[in-house]
Q: What sequence folds into this?
């Protein structure tokens, strides 16, 4: 357990350092974009965090989905811990998206949120699902009667992931399309692509560190709960 926590702490520190480096390089080294194609060309730099935040949140909801499936299949503590970790990280990285996105939207579009854009609304709902799960877990007594509906909501939340990811392909309004690799159409400068890749790697490492620390925390909570249950039984005897 100690070595696992040490690994999580190391990965978290590396991820935070990489995220900070991504921010600095995005602000100071990455070139400006075409002012003719952007209303607020300098505001694009927030996307070096916004995009990795979004992909990391999709990873979190994948963990949530796996945990929900494992919980229903085996009623195992591992599945429940994955649900807890996935919902926590889904909310954390989801809030990073819904905070950074409107900042850019205000500068580029003139409005922080476009209620007519499919992707924005499905992602907002996805983050709301994570918030509901976290609040439900912390406000309801633990037990199968609580865990089953939470796992059901987790499965529903994951269904929004592919819808959100492909929303701009199906119905593109304001939100830019998905950029995976450098293309002539995308017009990504090598420096911009380099900073984006650093951001993806850094946030992935940060996600891994947070996930390991979160799982270790929930393992300790489970053990403490088991010990408390044994003490209560001994006290009754």
A:
């Amino acid at each position: 357990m100690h070595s696992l926590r040490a690994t999580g702490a190391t990965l978290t520190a590396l991820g935070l350092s990489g995220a900070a480096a991504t921010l600095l390089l995005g602000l100071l080294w990455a070139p400006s974009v075409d002012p003719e194609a952007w209303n607020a060309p300098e505001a694009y730099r927030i996307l070096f965090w916004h995009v990795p935040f979004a992909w990391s949140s999709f990873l979190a909801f994948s963990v949530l989905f796996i945990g929900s499936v494992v919980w229903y299949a085996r009623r195992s503590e591992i599945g429940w811990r994955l649900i807890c970790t996935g919902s926590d990280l889904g909310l954390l990285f989801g809030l990073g998206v819904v905070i950074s996105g409107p900042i850019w939207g205000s500068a580029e579009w003139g409005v922080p949120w476009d209620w007519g854009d499919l992707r924005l609304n499905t992602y907002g709902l996805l983050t709301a699902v994570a918030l509901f799960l976290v609040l439900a877990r912390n406000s309801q007594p633990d037990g199968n009667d609580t865990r089953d509906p939470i796992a059901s909501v987790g499965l529903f939340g994951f269904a929004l992931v592919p819808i959100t990811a492909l929303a701009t392909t199906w119905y593109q309004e304001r939100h830019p399309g998905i950029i995976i690799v450098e293309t002539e159409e995308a017009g990504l400068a090598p420096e911009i692509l380099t900073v984006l890749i650093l951001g993806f790697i850094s946030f992935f490492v940060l996600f891994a560190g947070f996930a390991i620390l979160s799982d270790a925390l929930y393992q300790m909570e489970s053990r403490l709960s088991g010990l408390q249950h044994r003490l209560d039984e001994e006290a009754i005897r």
